[in-house]
Specification:
Radius of gyration: 17 Å
Number of strands: 11
Distance between the termini: 45 Å
Strand content: 15-25%
Structural class: alpha+beta
Shape: globular
Helix content: 40-55%
CATH architecture of the largest domain: 2-Layer Sandwich
């Protein structure tokens, strides 16, 4: 499988459909969780409820039902691609260091948190450092090296508690296509796409998943 055979829009639709279904309340809870977690500290359900304008009990129920919600001492430390620590891909947002579960997460998360991010990752084949800046609504800037690409995997089932092992571990940045092909040749069903394609897939997936809630939401300035 290659991106030319599948198409950016089709892959974005499949990724959005692999995530939990979100009604209006779910969209508000998810966006609130992302943006609070981007402040760099563990997030309590009460904070999410306050920001989303919902009852705490309803928020707790959603967070318990959704896969990919990681807690420590009852507070959120990881959520759908974004984490405070212990993941390999670095996101620097407003002077704080956050982490992403996979390379693709770094391309769609900035739009959801409403802030530009400086990204740093490592090519699994060569060990080279990959750097870039992702700006919501604008795209990828300062990609270094300029030849960098990322591996990808088409979801074959809804995302569940095994998401990190079944998807994230197959999506990395690589120095160039040759480095990516050396890796994808050893991992079935993976293929390489450009960083620009990854950003576009993320944007389309965000729009499918969050729709008008993303347009209507106004990110708050981070309090430091």
């Amino acid at each position: 499988m290659a991106i030319d055979e599948l198409g950016v829009e089709q892959l974005a639709a499949e990724l959005a459909n692999a995530m939990p279904s979100l009604d209006d309340a779910g969209q508000r809870v998810a966006l609130a969780t992302y943006r609070l977690l981007a402040n760099g500290d563990p997030v309590a359900a009460e904070q999410v409820a306050d920001r989303a304008g919902l009852a705490v009990g309803d928020v707790r129920q959603l967070l318990e039902e959704w896969p990919g919600v990681y807690l420590r001492a009852g507070e959120i430390i990881g959520f759908w691609g974004l984490a405070l620590a212990d993941m390999p891909h670095v996101l620097r947002v407003g002077g704080r260091e956050l982490r992403a579960w996979c390379a693709w997460d770094t391309l769609f998360l900035p739009e959801l948190i409403g802030q530009a991010a400086e990204v740093e990752s490592t090519c699994p084949t060569t060990g080279d450092t990959i750097r870039l800046e992702v700006v919501p609504g604008d795209g990828v800037h300062e990609l270094s090296p300029a030849t960098a690409v990322l591996s990808f995997l088409r979801p074959d089932r809804p995302f569940d508690a095994d998401l990190v092992m079944s998807f994230c571990h197959f999506v990395h940045f690589f120095r160039d296509e040759a480095a990516a092909e050396a890796w994808t040749a050893k991992h079935s069903n993976t293929f390489a796409i450009s960083v620009a394609q990854g950003f576009e897939i993320g944007h389309l997936s965000n729009r499918r998943k969050f729709g008008r809630a993303l347009d209507d939401s106004t990110p708050r300035s981070v309090v430091t």
